[in-house]
Design goal:
6 helices
Amino acid sequence: MLSEFKMPTANSFDELNARRLEALELLDRCLRDQTTGWLESFIERVVISEPLQVQLLNEVAEDVHYRLLALHQFHFDLRDQTVRTLRDEYGLNLHQLLSSPTLEDFHLLDADHTIRILCTQPHLTATDAARIRELLRSSIENAQRAHNEMQLARHLYDCIMDWVTGLRVLFLQRLWTAHGRTEILHHVQ
C-alpha cells in the first residue's frame, strides 16, 4: 500500500509532466469549446488508475488555479483599461455615469444601454461616439468571454479538488486497513 506514494523517479517525473501537459491541453480545449468534458474525462481516467495519482491531480489543480488567476487578472485589466481609456481620452467617468460598474459585474453591463448613456455627453463628437461604441462592445464581449472561462475553470478546479480529497481519504482507509492507527499517524504527521 505504501508503494502507492513512493518518491517519484526520473521516469515518473517525465510521465507526470507529460500527463500535466496533456491536462493543460485539455483545459485549453475546455475553455475554447466552453465544456468541461475533455478535462473531466481525463480526471476520470486518472481516478480509476492504480496506483493512486494524487500528486498528478494536485498539480493539475494547481495549473487550473493559475489559469483561473490569470483569467481574473485579464478580466480586471480589461475593465481597468476600458475605464481608464474612457476617462483619459474622452473625459468620461464610467463610475459616475453608471451604477456599480464593479470588477465582478463588468461583464454584465448592457453595451447598448451603457453606450446610450455615455454618448449623450455634450462634448463628444460623432467620431468619439463611434469609437466609444466599438470600445465598449469589444470590452464587454471580451469580459463576458473571460467570465465564462472563469466559471468553467472554477468548476473544474473544484471538481479536481473534490477528487483529491476523496483519494486522500481512500489512501488513509487503505493505510488503516493495511497497517493500523500507528502507521497512519506516522504518515499524517
